[in-house]
Amino acid sequence: MSEVKKEKSAQKSGENRIVKFFKGLKDLPQRIAKPFRNMYYELKKVSWPSKQKLIAYSIIVLVFMLFMGIVIGLLDMGASALVRMLIA
User: Distance between CA atoms of 72 and 67, rounded to whole angstroms?
Assistant: First the structure.
């Protein structure tokens, strides 16, 4: 007797999942649009830098990248030379 109840319960559960799925499709556009709407409102709160500050920050980043490129290049050359000395 309990097996029959379990089957009916499982069947009902499956039907409920299908019904929930199709009910969820109704509000799908709103659920997709909500994060974009929130992002728009958050971006309105951002204080954007002026053109001069943006250029200054960009130059600082480029100089730092150049410096780090040189440092990593020197470390790589040093490691390569060390490996060559160990092999020879």
Answer: 9
Domain residue ranges in the chain: 1-46, 48-88
Determine the Cα–Cα distance for residues 62 and 68; give it in Å rounded to an integer: 10
Q: Token pair for residue 70? A: 């040189």
Interior CA angle at 21 toward 23 and 38, to 5°?
75
Give, as one character, the DSSP assignment of residue 75.
H
pLDDT in tens, the chain (88 residues): 456 555 556 566 767 787 777 777 778 888 889 999 999 999 999 998 999 999 999 999 999 999 999 999 999 999 999 999 999 8
Instruction: Give, for 16, the enclosing helix (H) or strand (E).
Output: helix 2-26
In the structure encoding, which two tokens stand for residue 32, read together?
């997709």
